[in-house]
Amino acid sequence: MKIFNFHLMPYAHANLEEIRRQGTSWVTYSNAFYDPKKGADLYHEYLDQLEFADKLGFDGVAVNEHHQTAYGIMPTPGVLAGALARSIKHGDVAVLGRALPLVNNPLVIAEEFATLDNLLRGRFIAGFVRGIGAEYHTMGINPAESHARFHEAHDLIIKAWTQPGPFEFDGRYYKFKHVNPWPRPYSEPYPRIFTPSSGSIDTIRWSAQKRYTYCQTLAPIAAVAQTFSLFREEADKAGYQATPDQLCWSNAIYVAETDELALKQVRPHLEAYANDFLSRNPVMMSPPGYSSVASVKRVRAMKAFMSQRQSAEDILEKGVVIVGSPNTVREKLAAYQDLAGFGISLTKTQFGTMPHAMVQENQIAIAKEVLPYFKNRLPQPHVKAAAE
Amino acid sequence: MVNPVYQNLDVRGTPVRFMRAGKGAPLVLLRGDDASEGWRSYMDALAQSYDVIAPEHPGFGGAPKPEWLDCVADMANFYLDLLDTLGLKDVRLMGLGLGGWIAAEMAMRAKGCIANLTLVDAAGMKVAGANGIDLFLVTEEQGILDKFADPSAGKAEQEYKLTAESEDTRIANQMVISQMAWSPRWHDPNLRKWLHRVDAPTLIVWGAQDRIFPAAHAHEWQKLIKNSRVEIIESSGHTPYIEKADAFVKAVSKFLNAERVPA
Fold this sequence. Notes:
Number of strands of chain A: 11
Number of domains of chain A: 1
Structural class of chain B: alpha/beta
Number of domains of chain B: 1
Radius of gyration of chain A: 20 Å
Order of helices and strands of chain A: EHHEHEHEHHEEEHEHEHHHHEHEHHH
CATH topology of chain A: TIM Barrel
Strand order of the largest sheet of chain B: 1-2-4-3-5-6-7-8
Mean pLDDT of chain B: 96
Number of helices of chain A: 16
Distance between the termini of chain A: 21 Å
CATH superfamily of chain A: Luciferase-like domain
CATH architecture of chain A: Alpha-Beta Barrel
CATH class of chain B: Alpha Beta
Helix content of chain A: 40-55%
Low-confidence stretches of chain B: none
Oligomer: heterodimer
Radius of gyration of chain B: 17 Å
C-alpha cells in the first residue's frame, strides 16, 4: 500500500457557532470571519506538515481545490503544490484535483499541471474533478452543463498534452483557434491521473474505462468497498483487470498510545470536522443538473440524517476514519484494505481544528507505527472473503 | 371548469405537449416552473373568451433536454417556430415568470404575428437595488412559500404542487430551468439593448409583494417597452394568477378586450 499525506487546509480558526447558525461553512459563511494573520500562519504550518511527511517517508503528499469555504482554503491548489515542488524531495505531489468545469479555459489547467510535472520531474499526479455542487453557486458555472463541460475539458487537456501543437479546438463549451501549450508534460505521455469522486456511477465507469485511478472521497468503508467493487466490474467490462493502485481511499488517521487516549484527543477536532466544516445545505450540494434525478432524491432523503450531529464514535464505527493505538490502527487499516481492495491510502493527519503540534505527533506516530508495516502490502482476498 | 384537450406536436423534430381550450382569438400562455402542471381556474376564465394554448416547455416532463437549448433566446426561437407550425396569427402572448422572459424575447424578434403581449412577474431583468430571493438556494417547500404574500395560500400551493407523483418531473424540470436561468441569474443583460423592438401593446402585471422579482422590475420593463403599462395586483406575491386569480383575470381581460382585433 502507498500512503499519501493529504491535506484539506481547513481554516481551523473558523467561528463554529456562526457555521452552526447558518447551517453551512460554504457559500454564505462570510469571509469576514477570515483573519489573514491567522490564515497566513495556517498556510505555513500546513505546508510544514506536508514537507515533514516527505521527510518521514510518506509515499507522497496531496492537496485539493475548494472555493469560498472554511472547509479548505486552497482555491488555487497549484500555488500550494508549487510551493511544495522544490522541498518535497522523495515522494509524489498530487493535486486531487482541479475542478475542470469551473474554469472557462481548461488550457490553464493543462499548463499548470504540465509545469508542476516538469518541476517535479514526473513525481506529479494530476487530479480531475467536477467540483462540488456548492461551487457552481460560487463560481457562477451552470450546473446543467457540469458533466458535458467536464468531459470536453478533459478531452481538450489530454489532446493538448498528446497532440503536437498548434491545433484548433472547436468544442461546444471551449473554442480555441490556437492550442499549443508550453511546457509539455515531463511524464510520458502525461502525468498519472486520479479521479476523486463521491461515488457517482458515471464517474466510476468513465474512470475505469480510461484506466485512471479512482479515488473515493470520505465515506464509510462498507460503501467504499461497494464502490471499488463496481470499479473492478467496470474494468472487467472494459476488458482488463483493475489493479489495487487504481483504487485510492481517502481517509483520516490518528494514532496515540491507547485507543482511549486517541479518541479523547481527537474528539473535538474530528467532531468539528464532520459536523461543522463539512456541513452544507443539501440544496447547495445538488444544484439542478449537477446530478441525476435519482441522486437529487438520495440527497433529499439524506437531509434528515445530515441535520443530526455525529459523534466521534459514530464516525469511527462506520469506518470513515481510523483512530486508536498503533495496534488498532494497523489492524483496521489492514482489514479495510482487504475488504475494499485499495492500493493507495490518501490519509489526512490534520482535520478540523487540530493544532500543529498535535498533527506533527500524529505524523511521527504514523511514520513509526504504520508506514513500515504497509510497505508493499497488497489486499489479501481470503481475508476479504472471511469479512463478508 | 372546461376540459382542455391535450395535444402533441412535433416542431422541427422537437416534441411538445400542450393543453388547449376555449373559443376566440388564440392566446398562447407560456408558464414558468409550473409548465408541467394541469389546468387551473385562471386559465378557465381566460378560455371563456380566448382559444388558450398552454404548452409544456420542451425538455419538461421527463423529456430529454433539447440538444439545441442553451439559453432563453433558443427557447424564444423555438416558440416562434411553434406559432408557425400551428399557423397562428394575431396571437395574444402571455408569459408568467420564466415564461414572461421567453415571451419578451419572442416579441423582440417577431413583428406582426403577436397582437399583444402580457408579462406577469416576468424573469429576465436585472434591476439594481431590487434583488429578490435566490430560489436556487432554498428548498422547494420554502421556494413555494417565498412566492406568496399570504403564507396560508403558500401552504395550500405546497399541497397542490409537492406530490410524490410529480417529484421526478419537478427535479428534471429544474435542470432545464437551470440551463436557462443559472447564469446570469434569472436575467439576460442583452435584453435592455433590444426591448425597444417590441411594438406590440404590452401589459405588465405584477404582484405588489413579489419577493422573487420585486415590483421595481415591473416599472423597469415599462420603461424599456414603449407601448406598455403596469397593473399592480395588491396583496399578491410572485404568482398573482394563483394568489389573486379574480383580480388578475379582471386586469388582463380589460387589456385583452380593449386590444381585441376582429378575428
